[in-house]
Amino acid sequence: MQHGQKKRKVRPAQTVKKKQGKEKQMQPQPVFEKERDALRLRNKVAIITGGDSGIGKAVAIAFAKEGADIVIAYHEDNEDARATAARIESIGQQCLLIAGDISKPAHCKKIIQQTVNRFGKLDIVVNNAGIQFPQKELSAITPDQLKKTFETNIFAMFYLVQAAEPYLQEGASIINTTSVTAYRGSSHLLDYSATKGAIVSYTRSLSAYFAKHKIRVNGVAPGPVWTPLIPATFPPKHVSSFGSDTPLGRAGEPVEVAGCYVFLASEEASYLTGQILHPNGGEIVNA
């Protein structure tokens, strides 16, 4: 319950004090099991930003294996995008590729409109795309870098959800990718970490906004994961030891993170909203 939310009657007032069969006397009876479709996302349509590679690619493939049709919004890597689409189609699901800059509101509207035109609906939005520019010195973060990082990592999430809102129905799910750096910080990723902290607050606030519509909003905060972003942005020495300082002693693979997104998008997470999952190799964070 949100703080300050007015309580309302949702079941008969009752007291059960019997020594035996207390549960049997409850009205209504607690629900202990549900029938589960073998494909947890059957007939769902999911948009995944940054779905051409890395975590987004793993999520796209995992969703497809659970029966979802996929829309991959990506920036410019056509080769990776086509390879991911081919894999999704080999599974038997449809895949729509949309290239462009998600930091532009007009492009986010285009993503939603093309999705609805193609599939007729929208069930899942995964805000996953992100960029980072490591800097050793605070003074090295230029205004242009700061603007670009925030526009891509957090502004784009606002734009895409704003465009998607008219098409999201009860039972829809929004999943935002944040990071372990939102919780412990990072001395060489100051602007990136700041956006990831903003995503945590955005997720919690957006969940409150959509709760009355029975639309769930959650997030995933990966730790070190072996994706193209790592060798593309970090120096070789850092890359060689990347993730070795986690309790499990290694970086995660994208597939090891994808299950969190499947769970949050599925009916199994029907009582979760405003929450963040932490696939980070065992680091304890103040969640």
UniProtKB/TrEMBL annotation:
EC code: 1.1.1.47
Pfam families: adh_short_C2
Record's keyword terms, sorted: Oxidoreductase
Alphabetized InterPro entries for the sequence: NAD(P)-bd_dom_sf, Sc_DH/Rdtase_CS, SDR_fam
Coiled-coil positions: none
GO molecular function: glucose 1-dehydrogenase [NAD(P)+] activity
UniProt feature, compositional bias: Basic residues: 1-21
Positions of the UniProt region annotated as Disordered: 1-30
Family assignment from sequence similarity: Belongs to the short-chain dehydrogenases/reductases (SDR) family.
Protein name: Glucose 1-dehydrogenase
Species the sequence originates in: Niastella caeni
